[in-house]
Amino acid sequence: MAQAINKLTTRQVDTIAKPGRHADGGGLYLVVGPDGGSRKWVLRYMLNGKRRDMGLGSAGRGGLPLAQARAAASEARGLIQKGIDPLEHRRADAAAASPPAAIPTFGEMADALLASLGNEWRNDKHRAQWEMTLRVYAKPLRPLPVDEVDTNAVLAVIKPIWSTKNETASRLRGRIERVLDYAKTLGHRSGENPALWRGHLSNVLPKRQKLTRGHHPAMPYDQVPAFVQALRLRDSVGARALEFTILTAARSGEVLGATWGEIELDKALWTIPAARMKGARQHRVPLPGRAVEILREVAALRRTNKPGEPLFPGSRPGRGLSNMAMDMLLRRMGRDDATVHGFRSSFRDWAGERTSFPREVAEAALAHLVGDDVERAYRRGDALEKRRSLMQEWADYQKKSPADAQRL
Predict the structure, then answer these.
(1) Does this model's pTM top 0.70?
(2) Rounded mean pLDDT of the chain?
(3) Cβ atoms < 10 Å from Cβ of 81
(4) CA neighbor of 125 nearest in space, from 317, 326, 380, 286
């Protein structure tokens, strides 16, 4: 018996309120939503042993009229009789009618990745380093469609600095790899990542351990006392920040990003949260007497009493000193042979050669991990009080005259 079709009337399409499917015949249904108001057309069919539902559009007033719904269902049935899935046919038509999406450039993908990383940055300096390498060193790649970045293009930006700035080049390679992986995940490129090191660029570039790896130029520790005494003659926030950095053997980013909420002056303690540490571990810094004095000096510069107020304020309200403040101070003082980070090496050399403190204590002062996983598991403390004595000796050493420092 032939299946009855055209069961519904236009009035029924507009007025049926009972939720559920209402058959018009031939697999065409009027589907009324649970609220009794929303309604749509659906064609149910079988193809290759599988049942599928194909939406034809909304129904009722303002929607697809009954006659047009029947015509669309009839057209779909014609395709089914030919073995063609009407759903797949519709998708293919839509794809053919839509122009292909433009492939973004490497620069656009790099900027999108930077924006997507959100709170992943340890501090503003970390983000600035990523931006600088991807905008300056990777500049030749930025206008290229991201799917056209190949091995030759990557080598063209990495190879010129691989031997002279190997640390920078290595980080640049890793960041390019990250951008290209990001683009692949979003469907903008395929195949192997041309910035991949293992099994790819490692075949054409010398291994890093075979190169002379650069270090931050460090001031000899016996010159530090005279430098600090000259530093104390300068009346500026930058000078106080640099002296505080030397006294605590901290990284510049840790100091520049420090806030009053991290300081306990009554305990002479600075607690740096894990999110701001290179190793992503909380680090407690015992403050020697002179460091506490510096903080009491700069406390007078606080604009508010909020815990988030920077220790060393910059010229802009609510912002700390710029990343270049201490470096530029070194240059103005004629010390092109040293870096801010290098004072950590000065401290480590002094601790190793002029004190009897165990190596583990000096390394802990620098927030370095010491020993293997098992050893660290049993040594859970951070030697705070031992480090307090070490840091006070370091501060006392900086009070010596140059001649006295040479004899120590």
Answers:
(1) no
(2) 86
(3) 8
(4) 326
Distance CA 163, CA 222 (A): 32
Q: Is 200 helix (H, G, I), strand (E, B) or coil?
A: coil
- Amino acid present at 303: R
Other CB atoms closer than 10 Å to residue 378's CB: what's the count?
7
Instruction: Please report where in the chains the tokens 């140059």 appear, as a residue.
Output: 402
The alpha carbon torsion through 331, 335, 339, 343 (nearest 10 deg) reads: -130
Which run of H or of E encompasses 354? helix 342-354
- Give dist(CA 204, CA 202) in Å, integer: 6
At 227, phi and psi to the nearest 5? Answer: -65, -45
pLDDT, one tens digit per residue, over 233-283 is 999 999 999 999 999 999 988 999 999 999 999 999 999 998 888 777 899
CA 48, 53, 56, 60 dihedral sign is positive
Beta bridge partners of residue 269, listed in sequence order: 264, 286
Instruction: Give the residue-averaged pLDDT of 348-356.
Output: 92
Q: Helix or strand or coil: residue 26?
A: coil
For the chain, what's the residue count?
408
Side-chain half-sphere CA neighbours of 86 within 13 A = 21
Query: In 291-330, which positions are buried (b, 16+ CB within 10 angstroms) versus exposed (e)?
Result: bbebbeebeeeeeeeeeebbbbbeeeeeebbbbebbbebb
* Tokens (6 digits) for 81: 């009789």
**Dist CA 141 CA 147 (whole Å):** 11
Percentages (nearest 5) of helix, strand, coil residues in the chain:
50, 10, 40
β-bridge partners, 313? 320
DSSP category for residue 310? B
Which helix (H) or strand (E) element contains residue 149?
none
Q: Report how far residue 121's alpha carbon sits from residue 80's, in angstroms, rounded to the nearest whole number.
A: 55
